[in-house]
Amino acid sequence: MRELRYIKIGTEEYPIPIKCEEYAVKNANGETEVESRVVWANSEEDAFYIPTYREESDDVIYGMFKRKVESDPNMLDEMVELLTRLDPVRTKSENNGRKSQKSYAYTTIGTPGNGKTFMMQALGEIVHPKGAMLINCQQLREAEEIFKKVQIGVSKSSKRKCIDAYIYSTNIGEKEFSPNTVAYIKSVLGNDFCTQETRDGKRITAIDWNNTDASADVIERVCDEIIQREGINYKEENGNVGITTTNGPLIEALFDKTNPNYGRMVILDEYNRLPEDDGLLTMQAFFSEPGKDKLELEGADNKVYTIRREDIPETFLLLGTANQAIEGMGESIKRQSRPVISRQGQGIDIKLISAPTKADYISRTLKHLTGVPAYYVYKADEDGYLKNPSYLKEILEDFRTVGLSKDEIKEIPKEEMYNIKHIDRTLKVATAYGTLLYETDRLIQELAHEDTLPMEYTEYLKHEAVVDLRYIFKLLQHSKLEKPQGESGEEVAKKLM
User: Fold this and answer.
1) Pairing between strand 133-136 and 105-110?
2) What is the phi/psi pair of residue 278, to 5°?
């Protein structure tokens, strides 16, 4: 399988922000204002050792981290928490030299658009080339689908199962799956539907049956072609309806080292919509309570898989995201139950993310304008950069291009490099724009609870007048649309004659 290695970030060579603090100051008029300061990890003592199955250079991975993982100030603590849990040095156990007794579970709860899922997915890309596995809990009928999927179908499901079994035999070296067949599958269903990579001299193949918009008939024809090309022994079942089970994402990530999904993080998106049962609570207790040493899960064909804490892959975390229960979103929205909170611990493995601050709006705006977390760099030495914008420009240009090839650098949007080049102007624009949206959001929240206004209006403000961090990007994109300029006066009059 792919080799596990460690990269070191938070050093002098690869610095990262770890805290954004607010403090009160007096302005020239004697009024109190809130300012921000950023704390950076940039020494050997502060460094994080991050496990990864990626093969790219440290420069490439650091560039990915700067441009994707680093979040707005309201999510910075969560980023540091996850980096800490991934770091075997910071979580090492003193219990007779055994592997870390850390918690592998972490759930964030906050308003939509604050970057919870995006940050987790971006971190998943850092530790594994296939990224994190994202599970939409709204679409699950039962919690056990996390580790065992039950499928009811006709012969096509049997064909897929037969192909999956053949692929497994090729991955463990018993046979070979032809690259030409892979090329054919990609040409019909897309590059992400089928992947093949070499690990320790073996070709590892994977098919994601759900990762395509193709019709059932097209997939059926592709199955027939695969069976014919590879000479797979398959007998037609005359369309008999049957029930098949396959291993779910959790088992693939934890147990099968020949599976391309081994070692991937698992993200349970909208976790508070997940159907709850005893199996889910047992699984949750294992990952969040260090005293639980063993977990048994039933996978495909009723096979029982057993894993101990010491065998959990270094890159694995079981992450959850949830939106706060709010009025008008339906009865399916529910808060975390008491058993869930008991197992994970409020404030430890379950974190409530605060509402976005003005700093978050400015930070997100700068990120969209420059492609890098410019806010943190600027706040590191605000006075110095204001005196010498060219120095700030050089740092941001380095962050925007570090780890990219010459061709990738050419693909950087010209507007981002322009905004970095004129960073003094960009800072003013981002500050004004971010402040405006923050104040607008705050005004909406205040008026929504104003008892002197008509109920119809306050209800509208509560449920439909939404200005949040996502709105920054939407409005910026809309402003780029080309609109007709038109004519006025005599020129129009002549054409109307």
Assistant:
1) unpaired
2) -65, -35
| Residue 352, H or E segment | strand 350-352
CB 32 within 8 A of CB 44: no
| Three-class secondary structure of residue 133 per DSSP | strand
Q: What is the pTM of this model?
A: 0.76
The DSSP annotation for 373-441 comes to -HHHHHHHTHHHHHH-HHHHHHHHHHHHHTT--HHHHHTS-HHHHHHHHTHHHHHHHHHHHHHHHHHHH
Q: How far is CA 136 from CA 12, 139, 435, in A?
A: 39, 6, 33
190-220: per-residue pLDDT in tens?
A: 887 888 887 767 788 888 877 777 777 788 8
Let me know: does 287 contact 343? Beta carbons within 8 Å.
no
Residue 421 near residue 374, CB atoms below 8 Å: no
Separation of alpha carbons 33 and 431, rounded Å = 15
Give CA–CA dist 107/333, Å, rounded: 16
What is the pLDDT, as a whole number, of residue 28? Answer: 75
Q: At what angle do helices 358-370 and 469-479 cross, to 10 degrees?
A: 40
- What does the pLDDT look like over 356-404, one tens digit per residue? 889 999 999 999 999 999 999 999 888 888 888 899 999 999 999 999 9
> Residue 241 has what pLDDT?
45
* Pick from 382, 464, 461, 452: nearest CA to 424: 382
| Residues 240 and 146 sit within 8 Å (Cβ to Cβ) | no
Question: Residue 298: which of 277, 315, 271 has the closest Cα?
Answer: 277
Number of neighbours of residue 493 by Cβ within 10 angstroms: 10
Q: How much is the mean pLDDT over the chain?
A: 84
Question: Measured between alpha carbons, how far is 334 from 325 in angstroms, rounded to an integer?
Answer: 6
